[in-house]
Design goal:
heterodimer; A: alpha+beta; 4 domains; 22 helices; B: mainly alpha; two-stranded antiparallel sheet; 63% helix
Chain lengths: 676, 572
C-alpha cells in the first residue's frame, strides 16, 4: 500500500479547513475544556468590539477587533490541528477500505446455486466462492480448499502466500486477490464492523474515547486553566485598588495567553496521529488505549521462528562417521529426504546440491517412504534394493541402532554434543540400523536483530523468546540473538502461564500470535498483536492486527506508544514554559500607565502596551500551527535511559519553551510596532 | 556585623546536627522498631487503655482521615467556648476579658490548624488558662496531627502494596510522647534559665528611672515558647512574639528558637527516606528544599544587610543594614535568616517586624509561604511537597514515554485529579481572599466594623496591597506571621481568614493522604530501565522547576502589584 508521507496534502488541508469551522460548534468544543474557554473569550471580544464602536472606555474598535480576530484564529488553528490529524488518519484508512469496495461476490446459496452479489451486501455467515483471478470481496475464513493469494494490496509484499482451510492460515482479507485454485470462504464480520471500519471510527472522533493518560492530562490542563481564570478575575479588584483601569481585551488576552492553549489545541491531534502512525506501520489498532499501553510494555514475547531467526532451521553440514565417505553419506541423506516435505528435509537436499554438487535423481521405483511420527521421532526411506535409511533425533536413532545389536560410534556421539552446544540441531542418520553420520541443522539469526533487542533493553523492555526447541538449543540462540529470557519446548499454555506470571509481578506484557491456540494468550496479554494471516479467533482476541504479518512489528509499536506520550509531555512542558515570557509581555503592559515603575518588568523592551498584548496573543496563536508538524510526526524517542531522556526533553522543551517566546514576541512586536 | 554571617551558618549547621539523627530516630519510632525511648511505652499503653483504643488496629486512608478530622473538630468546639468564657474561668490574674465570637472563631481555628495567626495580643487578650490549656495544648496536638498524617503517607510507600496504613492514634500519641514532650522540656528549660518567665503570677510592676510606673506582663511562658517553635506553631505568648525581650531574651535563645523550629521539618524528610528504605530519595528531597531555602534566604540577606535605598538616597550611611523593625540584640542577618525560616516553614513567629523589611524581602517571604514546602511545617511540609512531586512525576513520566509512576505505583487520572485540585486551592484562597479584601477596601471603606476598611492599612498603596496579600497568604499557608501594618481584628479579617485557615489546612492534608492511599493500594510495578527514577538529580531539578513555575505563574500579577511595584517605585 502506498500513501503519501507529506504532512499537508492539499486535498486533506481543504477538508481540514472546512472541518475547523464546523468544529466551532460549542457542543463539540466543550470536549476540550482549554479551547472551549478560548472560544468563550472570542465571543466576549466580539461583543466588546461592537460595544467599542459607541463607547470609548474599552479601547479602539480596531484594537478590539484585532484581538477578536486573533483569538478566533487561535481556536481555528487548534481545530485545524485536530481536523488535519483526522483527515490524514481517515485518508489512510480509506485507501485501505477502497480496495474492497464494490467487489462482486459469488455467494453460495444454501441450495447450492451461486448468486452474484455486491460485497457491501455480504452478511456474517454468508459463504462465497473465489477462483483464480477473483478479488476477495470481504474478510473471511476459508472453510474449504487451498489457494495462493496475492496480498500486496494490503501488505505491499509481492510474494504470494498460501491460505488453506483449517489450521492457522485460514483467514483471508478483503481486497486481496486469489492467484490459483478455488476456495470457499465464510464471511467473518458484519458489514461496517471489520477492524478497518472500527479503526476509521476511532480516528473520526465520534467513537474516539480518550485514553487514561489523555484524561489525566486533560484534568491537569483544566486545573491550570482554572488557576488562570482565578488569576485573571482577581486582577480586576487588584487593579481597582491600584487605580488602574484594565480593559476587557487586556484581561482576556492575558487569560488566553496564560492557559495552556498550545497543548490544549494539539492534544487530540497528538492522539489521533499516534493511531495514524500505527496505521502507517500497517498495524490496525482496536483502541487508542492499546497504542498508549504499548509504550508501557515491560515484557515482549516473541516467537523464535520468523522473528529472531529467518524462517526454519537449515542443514549446514554433513558429518559422516569414521569409515564412511562424505559422498556416500550425502547420497543417503538426500535419498531419505527426497519425499520429506518439511523445511528441514528440503534444506538437506538443497545443501547437498550446493555443497557437494549432488545430482538429483528421482527416488527409485517402489521405494517406501516412512513418515515422521511423534512416536518414532524419525523418518526415512526403504528402497527396493534393501536399504533402510532413517534419520531423526539422536536418542531415537540410537535406540534403533542399539536394538539391532549394533554399537553406537563414539565419534557420532561426540559430534552430536558439539552441534547441540553450538545451538544447532543434530539429525542422526542410520543405514540398515547402523549409525552412518550426523546432519547439522542450524538456525540463522536475522541480521540486525540483536541491535533491536539492545534498543529494547535500553527502553526497559525485556525480550522473551518462545521456541519449541530444547533448552540447550534455545539457550544458545537466546544468547546469540541477545534476548533476555526464553521459553523452551513451549506449548501454547506455557505462553499463557508466562504472561500471567509476569503480570502478577505488575508487568505489562505484549505478544504476537497467529494461531487459534494463541488466542487465549493474546487476550491475556496487555498488548496482543494478531497477524492478519492468522485465524479469526486470534484476531478477535488481540487488540491490534498487523497487516504485514511481521513479527518484529512489536518493536515499532512500542516506540509509537512511547512517542505518543512523549509528544504530549513535551508539548505540555513547552506550553507552560511559554507563560513566563507572556507574563513579562502582558503584566507590565497592563499597569505601566498608572505604575510607571513597573516598566522595569518590560525586559523585552516592547513598543507599547497595545503592541505588547497583540504580540503576545499573536505568538500564542501562531505557535499552534508551527507545532502541528511536530504533533503529527511525534517527538522522536531516543532509547538513552529515562533520566537522560528527561534531561534532554527538559532542556529542549522546557528551557526552549522559556526562551522561544521571548524571541518570538519581541520579533512580532518589532513588526506590530510599525503600525500601532 | 562580621560575626553575623558565621552566626547564622553555625545555627543552620547545629540544626542539621540535631535534625538528621532525629530523623533516623523518628523512622524507627514509627516503624515500631526498638529505640531508647521505649521506656515510655507504659505511659502510651495507659493512654490507649484509658481511651479504649487498640493501637494495633490497622486503618486505611479514609479511616485515618476520619479519625484526624473528628478529633480536630472536638478541639475546635472545646477551645471556642473556653476563649469566649475565659473571663469567668480561673487562672486569669490580669482580669482579661472574654473574646468576641468572631475573634474567638479566628483564634481557635488558627491554633487548631497549627497556624497561630493572632489577631489578639497575648498580654491583654487571653488568660493563663487559655494560654496553657487551649493554646499550648493545641500547639502540641496540632503539630502531632501533622506528623501523624505524614507518617500515614510514609506508610503507604513502605511496603510494595498496602491498603492498611497503621493506626492514626498510635502515630499521634507517639509524636507527642516520643518527640514533642521530651524536646519541649529541654528547650523550655534553656529558655527559662535565660530569662523567659515561668510564673503563674500576674503583671509585675516597677518604677522606671524617670519615675513612671511600668506594668510588665509575664506568665508561665517558657514551655509555651518551646512548643511554639518546635511544633512550627509560631503563636507568641506576648503580642510582639519573639521580638519581645522576655520571649526571646538573647542571641543564644534566638539560636535555640531558630534551631527548634527547623529540626522537625528536616527530620521528617530524613525519616521518610529511612522509613520507606529509600534514603537517596530523602536526600534528594532535602536537597531541593535546601536549595529552595537558600534561593530565598540569600537575596533576603542581601537586601536586609544592604539597607534601604530610600535612606541611602538621603545620603545616610547604613553600616548596620536595614534596622527598622529589628532588635539590636539580633541584628539584620539573624533577623533575615529568621524571616526566611519562619516563612518557608509554617512557623510564623517573628523576631523582627516583617512589615518593616525591604520590599524585596517581603517578596521572598510571600513566595516562601506560597510554596510552603521548602521544609514546610511539621509533617505538612512533606505532604505539600508530595503534591508538587506527583505533578512532576506525571509531566516527566509523559516526557520519557511511560505512564507515570511513583515508587512503583502508577499515577493515573484519579490521583492527578486530587493533586490538581489542591494545586488549585492555594491560588484560589490567596487570590480571591485578597481580591475580596481589595474590593471591600476600595468600594466599601465606610463599613461599620471594629476597624473601618478604609483604615485597615497603615500604608495604603503598594505596601498596603502587600499587607493584605500577606495576611491571606499567611493564613492559607497556616503560617501565622503578619505584615503587622494591617488592622486585622475585625469581623471581616477574623471570618475571612478563619475560612482560609481551615480550608488551607485540611484539604492539603487529606489530598496527599488520599493520593498516597490510592497509590499504595495499587499493584507494585518493578523498576526497569524505562522507569523514571525519582531519586535522581534530574528528577529533583524537574520537581524544583515545577514548584517554581506553578507558584510564579499563579502569583506573578499579585506580586507585581505588591512588593515588585513597591521596590521599583522605591528605586526611582
Amino acid at each position: 500500500m502506498k500513501t503519501s508521507n507529506k504532512l499537508f496534502e492539499p486535498a486533506l488541508v481543504q477538508t481540514a479547513l472546512k472541518q475547523s469551522f464546523i468544529k466551532l460548534d460549542p457542543r463539540v468544543m466543550v470536549r476540550n475544556p482549554v479551547m472551549f474557554t478560548v472560544e468563550i473569550g472570542t465571543l466576549i471580544m466580539a461583543f466588546v468590539t461592537i460595544y467599542s464602536f459607541t463607547h470609548t472606555d474599552q479601547g479602539s474598535p480596531l484594537y478590539n477587533f484585532l484581538i477578536f480576530l486573533i483569538l478566533l484564529l487561535t481556536v481555528l488553528f487548534a481545530n485545524f490541528a485536530e481536523a488535519i490529524a483526522e483527515a490524514r488518519g481517515k485518508a489512510q484508512a480509506d485507501s485501505l477500505r477502497k480496495t474492497r469496495e464494490e467487489t462482486p461476490a459469488k455467494v453460495l446459496l444454501s441450495n447450492g446455486t451461486i448468486e452474484i452479489r455486491s460485497s457491501n451486501l455480504l452478511k456474517k455467515g454468508d459463504v462465497f466462492v473465489c477462483e483464480a483471478g477473483d478479488t476477495i470481496p470481504t474478510d473471511g475464513e476459508i472453510i474449504e480448499g487451498i489457494a495462493t493469494i496475492d496480498e500486496s494490496a494490503i501488505t505491499g509484499e509481492s510474494a504470494p502466500v498460501i491460505r488453506e482451510s483449517g489450521g492457522d492460515k485460514s483467514s483471508v482479507t478483503g481486497g486481496t486477490k486469489v492467484l490459483s485454485d478455488q476456495i470457499k470462504v465464510q464471511v467473518s464480520t458484519q458489514p461496517g464492523e471489520s477492524f478497518l471500519d472500527k479503526m476509521i471510527a476511532l480516528v473520526e472522533g465520534a467513537s474516539r474515547q480518550k485514553t487514561p493518560n489523555e484524561i489525566a492530562l486533560t484534568i491537569l490542563l483544566a486545573s491550570f486553566t482554572l488557576v488562570f481564570i482565578i488569576v485573571c478575575i482577581t486582577l480586576k479588584p487588584f487593579a481597582d485598588y491600584a487605580n488602574t483601569p484594565i480593559t476587557i481585551a487586556a484581561l482576556i488576552s492575558l487569560f488566553v495567553c496564560l492557559i495552556p492553549t498550545t497543548i490544549g489545541g494539539l492534544l487530540s491531534a497528538i492522539g489521533i496521529a499516534g493511531m495514524d502512525r500505527a496505521l502507517r506501520a500497517n498495524v490496525i489498532t482496536k483502541s487508542g488505549k492499546a497504542v498508549e499501553t504499548a509504550g508501557d510494555i515491560d515484557v515482549l514475547l516473541l516467537d523464535k521462528t520468523g522473528t529472531i531467526t529467518i524462517g526454519n532451521r537449515k542443514a549446514t553440514n554433513f558429518y559422516p562417521t569414521a569409515g564412511v565417505s562424505l559422498k556416500n553419506f550425502t547420497d543417503a541423506c538426500v535419498l531419505s529426504s527426497l519425499a520429506d516435505e518439511t523445511p528441514e528435509g528440503k534444506s538437506i537436499v538443497e545443501l547437498a546440491v550446493i555443497q557437494d554438487n549432488h545430482i538429483l535423481s528421482d527416488a527409485p521405483e517402489g521405494a517406501k517412504f516412512i513418515k515422521f511420527t511423534a512416536e518414532t521421532r524419525s523418518s526415512g526411506i526403504d528402497t527396493p534394493d534393501g536399504k533402510r535409511i532413517r534419520k531423526g533425533a539422536f536418542d531415537s536413532i540410537r535406540n534403533i541402532v542399539l536394538m539391532a545389536g549394533n554399537p553406537f560410534p563414539m565419534d557420532i556421539e561426540a559430534q552430536v554434543k558439539v552441534i547441540a552446544s553450538n545451538g544447532g540441531t543434530p539429525l542422526v542418520v542410520a543405514l540398515n540400523e547402523k549409525a552412518f553420520g550426523v546432519i547439522e541443522l542450524q538456525d540463522i539469526i536475522k541480521p540486525g536483530i540483536s541491535e533491536r533487542f539492545e534498543r529494547l533493553r535500553k527502553m526497559g523492555v525485556k525480550t522473551v523468546m518462545v521456541t519449541g526447541d530444547n533448552p540447550l538449543t534455545a539457550k544458545f540462540i537466546a544468547e546469540k540473538a541477545g534476548v533476555d529470557d526464553f521459553i523452551a519446548e513451549a506449548k501454547p499454555e506455557d505462553k499463557m502461564n508466562y504472561i500471567k506470571e509476569e503480570q502478577a509481578l505488575g508487568k505489562l506484557v505484549a505478544m504476537m500470535g497467529d494461531g487459534t491456540n494463541d488466542a487465549p494468550a493474546l487476550a491475556q496479554a496487555d498488548v496482543g498483536v494478531a497477524m492478519n494471516s492468522g485465524t479469526q479467533a486470534a484476531k478477535e482476541a488481540g487488540n491490534m492486527v498487523d497487516l504485514d504479518n511481521d513479527p518484529t512489528k512489536l518493536i515499532e509499536i512500542v516506540e509509537i506508544g512511547k512517542q505518543l506520550l512523549i509528544t504530549r509531555g513535551t508539548l505540555t512542558t513547552f506550553s507552560i514554559a511559554n507563560d513566563v515570557a507572556k507574563y513579562f509581555a502582558i503584566v507590565p503592559a497592563l499597569f505601566i500607565a498608572s505604575i510607571p515603575a513597573l516598566s522595569h518588568l518590560n525586559i523585552m523592551g516592547l513598543h507599547s502596551p497595545e503592541s505588547a498584548i497583540l504580540s503576545a496573543v499573536i505568538f500564542n496563536a501562531i505557535i499552534i500551527p508551527f507545532l502541528i508538524p511536530l504533533a503529527l510526526k511525534g517527538v522522536a524517542y531516543k532509547p538513552i535511559g529515562a533520566s537522560a531522556l528527561l534531561r534532554r526533553n527538559l532542556f529542549i522543551y522546557g528551557l526552549g519553551g522559556v526562551i522561544a517566546p521571548f524571541i518570538g514576541i519581541k520579533l512580532i512586536d518589532l513588526f506590530v510596532g510599525l503600525f500601532v | 556585623m562580621n560575626t553575623e554571617l558565621p552566626g547564622i551558618i553555625a545555627t543552620y549547621l547545629l540544626t542539621l546536627v540535631i535534625a538528621i539523627p532525629l530523623g533516623k530516630y523518628l523512622a524507627k519510632v514509627f516503624a515500631g522498631e526498638q529505640v531508647w525511648t521505649d521506656f515510655l511505652k507504659p505511659i502510651e499503653s495507659g493512654i490507649f487503655k484509658l481511651s479504649g483504643i487498640n493501637p494495633k488496629e490497622e486503618m486505611n486512608w479514609k479511616q485515618h482521615m476520619k479519625a484526624l478530622l473528628s478529633i480536630n473538630m472536638v478541639w475546635l468546639v472545646y477551645g471556642f467556648f473556653v476563649l469566649i468564657y475565659q473571663d469567668k474561668l480561673p487562672l486569669n490574674p490580669d482580669g482579661n476579658p472574654g473574646m468576641a465570637p468572631d475573634l474567638s472563631f479566628n483564634t481557635i481555628i488558627s491554633f487548631v490548624v497549627n497556624c497561630n495567626l493572632q489577631h489578639y495580643s497575648g498580654e491583654s487578650g487571653v488568660s493563663y488558662l487559655t494560654q496553657h490549656f487551649v493554646l499550648m495544648f493545641l500547639q502540641f496536638v496540632s503539630c502531632a496531627t501533622g506528623i501523624a498524617a505524614a507518617v500515614v503517607l510514609f506508610k503507604a510507600f513502605r511496603d510494595k502494596t498496602s491498603a492498611k496504613l497503621g493506626n492514626f492514634w498510635d502515630f499521634f500519641v507517639k509524636s507527642i510522647t516520643r518527640l514533642l514532650l521530651p524536646l519541649s522540656l529541654v528547650i523550655a528549660l534553656i529558655l527559662a534559665f535565660n530569662g523567659t518567665p515561668t510564673s503563674y503570677e500576674g503583671k509585675d510592676q516597677f518604677i522606671s528611672v524617670q519615675g513612671d510606673t511600668v506594668n510588665v506582663s509575664r506568665g508561665p511562658a517558657a514551655g509555651f515558647i518551646a512548643i511554639k517553635h518546635l511544633g512550627t506553631n509560631g503563636g507568641g505568648w506576648f503580642g510582639v512574639n519573639s521580638a519581645h525581650p522576655l520571649e526571646n531574651p538573647s542571641y543564644l535563645t534566638a539560636m535555640v528558637e531558630l534551631i527548634a523550629q527547623v529540626i522537625i521539618p528536616i527530620a521528617m524528610v530524613i525519616a521518610f527516606g529511612y522509613f520507606i528504605r529509600r534514603k537517596k530519595l530523602a536526600w534528594m528531597i532535602f536537597g531541593v528544599m535546601t536549595i529552595g531555602m537558600l534561593l530565598l534566604m540569600i537575596p533576603t540577606l542581601i537586601s536586609e544587610l544592604g539597607g534601604s535605598p530610600a535612606i541611602e538616597k538621603m545620603g545616610i550611611s547604613q553600616a548596620t543594614g536595614a534596622m527598622e523593625g529589628k532588635e539590636m540584640r539580633f541584628g539584620p542577618a539573624l533577623s533575615a535568616y529568621w524571616s526566611t525560616v519562619t516563612t518557608i516553614i509554617s512557623t510564623g513567629s517573628v523576631n523582627s517586624m516583617h512589615d518593616s523589611t525591604m520590599p524585596l524581602t517581603g517578596l521572598w517571604q510571600l513566595l516562601g509561604m506560597m510554596i510552603n514546602s521548602f521544609y514546610g511545617g511539621c509533617g505538612v511540609g512533606i505532604l505539600n511537597y508530595f503534591i508538587y512531586l506527583i505533578i512532576a512525576v506525571f509531566i516527566s513520566g509523559l516526557m520519557v514515554g511511560r505512564t507515570p509512576e511513583f515508587l512503583g505505583h502508577k499515577v493515573e487520572a484519579r490521583e492527578i485529579k486530587i493533586a490538581a485540585l489542591v494545586t488549585l486551592l492555594s491560588p484560589f484562597l490567596i487570590l480571591s481572599g485578597t481580591a475580596i479584601a481589595s474590593y471591600v477596601f476600595t468600594n466599601n471603606g465606610e463599613a461599620a466594623w471594629a476597624v473601618q476598611p478604609q483604615n485597615w492599612l497603615n500604608n495604603p498603596g503598594f505596601h498596603g496591597f502587600s499587607e493584605m496579600l500577606y495576611e491571606m497568604t499567611s493564613s492559607n499557608a497556616n503560617n501565622g506571621s503578619g505584615f503587622e501594618g494591617l488592622g486585622d481584628n475585625n469581623v471581616f479579617w477574623n471570618v475571612a481568614t478563619g475560612f482560609v485557615l481551615i480550608l488551607g489546612r485540611f484539604l492539603p492534608i487529606i489530598a496527599p493522604i488520599a493520593i498516597a492511599g490510592l497509590l499504595g493500594a495499587k499493584k507494585y510495578i518493578p523498576e526497569s530501565a524505562g522507569t523514571l527514577k525519582t531519586d535522581t538529580v534530574t528528577f529533583s531539578l524537574m520537581t524544583f522547576v515545577v514548584i517554581l513555575v506553578l507558584n510564579a505563574l499563579s502569583y506573578f500579577p499579585a506580586l507585581a502589584l505588591g512588593p515588585l511595584a513597591e521596590y521599583f517605585t522605591m528605586l526611582k
